[in-house]
Amino acid sequence: MSKIIAVTSGKGGTGKSTVCAGLGYTLAKQGHRTLIIELDFGLRCLDIIFGMENNIKYDLGDVLNGKKTVLEAVSQVPMANNLNVLCAPKTLTTVTAEQIVDICRSIKKYFEYIIIDTGAGINSHVFDIVEQANLILIISTPDQVCIRDASLMSDEFYNRGNKSQRLIINKVSKKVIGNSLVSNLDEIIDKVGVQLIGVIPDDFKMTVATGTGNPIPAESEALRAFDAISKRLGGEFVPLTVKTS
Ligand SMILES: Nc1ncnc2c1ncn2[C@@H]1O[C@H](COP(=O)(O)OP(=O)(O)OP(=O)(O)O)[C@@H](O)[C@H]1O
Ligand SMILES: [Mg+2]
Asked: Is the CB of 222 under 6 A from ligand 1?
């Protein structure tokens, strides 16, 4: 049985796709067969992040219009054997929650983790999809607008009946924590009202890696954070250490 994890945020640009890529990569490196499904219709980016922009033969659009099965349409990510991605189509397409549920059902025996990148802008279809997940990862950066939007998103899923949520605070740096913007991480956790599963530093090494399609370098603090979150997803206890620059 796969664990279906939806990665979402209230505000755009918080790092959802980066988190999907980072967690997909570390889960795969830990030996878990993992698939990322990208719902960012018309604005896909995981092909670039994984350095396979020119090697995507099929995408989610081919599955939705019945041309390919899910297994035929997924692409294996060269930097991690156990990692596959089903990229979003380049054109705007609508998808229903039922279609995504059917897709997940048809492949659940092949993957231990299915990670859904909800993409920029969230509509009612996306809400319907996310609420079906076994776990919702809410991504927030340490700024007040983002924190408030994360809290609203969480409330919405809670009201829809999905209480299985964890918070990831992304792009954390010394510059923003402990000053007039945000006093400390506890303030963010309290305001969003969701249990924390990890903190990812603002890490230029990762920006470079994802921009060039290279693996995140081993010395990257962000990679260490993704590795820890992946282990926590599997139930392992990994103490929280936050290293920022
Ligand atoms: N921890 C981080 N450290 C440094 N840069 C980061 C980090 N997380 C994300 N970024 C950068 O922030 C930008 C936005 O990230 P990303 O595309 O993952 O956000 P998103 O939430 O998926 O955006 P959208 O809402 O458009 O789908 C990218 O340039 C990415 O490289
Ligand atoms: Mg994205």
From this structure: yes
Task: Check whether 115 has a pLDDT greater than 90.
Answer: yes
CATH number of the domain to which 91 belongs: 3.40.50.300
Distance 109 CA to ligand 1 centre (A): 31
Indicate whether residue 202 lines ligand 1 (CB < 6 A): yes
Probe residue for ligand 1, chosen from 11, 17, 149 as the CB with the greatest number of ligand atoms within 8 Å: 17
Q: What is the pLDDT of residues 157-208, one digit of tens each?
A: 999 998 899 999 999 988 877 766 667 889 999 999 999 999 999 998 888 8
For residues 31-44, give the mean pLDDT: 91
Q: Which atom of ligand 1 is nearest to the CA of 119?
A: 27
Q: What domain range includes position 18?
A: 3-233
Q: Could you tell me the pTM of the whole model?
A: 0.95
Does residue 113 lie within any of the structural domains?
yes
* Alpha-carbon gap, residue 155 to 1, rounded angstroms: 28
> Is residue 102 a part of any domain in this protein?
yes
Tell me the two tokens of residue 53: 């922009």
Q: How far, in Å, CA of 201 to CA of 197, rounded? A: 14
Measured CA to CA in angstroms, residue 245 lies from 47, 183, 212 at distances of: 29, 16, 22
> What total number of domains does the chain contain?
1
